[in-house]
Amino acid sequence: MLKHLPILVILTTVTIDAMGIGLIIPVMPDLIREVMGGDLASAAVWGGILATVFAVMQFLCGPLLGNLSDRYGRRPVLLVSLAVMSADYVIMALADAMWVLVIGRIVAGITAATYATALAYMADSSSPEEKARAFGIVGAGFGIGFVLGPAIGGILGEFGSRAPFWAAAILAGGNALLGWFALPETVTNANRRAFEWRRANPLGSLKALGRLPSMNRLLLVFFLYQVASAVYPAVWPYFTAERFGWESRMIGVSLAFYGIGFALVQGFLIAPSVRFFGNGRTVFIGLWIEVAALVFLGFIASGWLLLATIPIAALGGIGLPALQGIMSRRVPDDAQGELQGVSASLTSLAHIAAPLVMTQTFAMFSKDHAMLYLPGAPFLLAAFLMVFSIVVFQNSRSGN
Description:
By secondary structure, the protein is mainly alpha-helical. Helix content is 79%, strand content 0%. The protein has one domain (2-183, 202-394): Growth Hormone, Chain: A.
């Protein structure tokens, strides 16, 4: 049991990251309207701005923390990030003005690199053949967080829009304490790399990794996937409230339902999919399932039908870990933290633009007197981007 504690800490860290996101999604529309007033469309626009601020900081700090973890170790980066994350949720819980919420999201964006560092930790602990499975385990932890987070957030939202933030602060602080006692370091002299400022910025790291064979196209596929998938956290609470009249509890239930399917896929289907189809075909299968799910969401008119098809949509989650496995196998052992830092920055860059674009698209097609009433328009835009990523991947020289 003790030998599995480090992996438990990593999974708990990722789960808490996802819970922190999922906890607050059901209450964000109410919180924003509570702080600044206005209607749901205005709240969606401000929600996009807050998400973009978060993503900007994650984009700027992802490679920095990834390179720091390559030099000084995964353990200190993870523990400090968790401690600061706990403090950030306290700030959000006490927010009474939009500028306080903005500061809270700035701090949250800096600490969000724990996900990249957790992936680097798993990469350190895995053989090349096990990397896709290891990333799938981390994805399962993320899925579990999305099960628990929205469900708990929806329930706690009944006690006020601030309650979920206090719960997230306690969870992050508790995991930091557990990690202090149970998390060993995986960076040794064999895989330690000197810190270089030129590689600790997003463009420098991207340029360095882009020199590796076929990495440019793989990184572009990863980026396009992240832009498209960002539609879910960006518009889900606003879309379901507008389309089906759902309140925070039902929004939380729907996200939890998706999280169950996602966790099961990540935990049990990644390894057999890669073993049977290979990494490359698994990526293709996952991407096409994503396209079908996004197109369906674009036109769906029944909330119960949405719930019934969520488990099928979750199957698309097999693609990303396989893609991450391909990329991880193409970089040396002493650059795993850098790769995950760049991946985090690309995810952040996607989340800088996507929330603004997706929420503005939602507002345009759901506001009063809209030229065409189509609240699902952001999902159709995301489906187009996912098809583009398939084209890029088809033309890349990715391995299997």
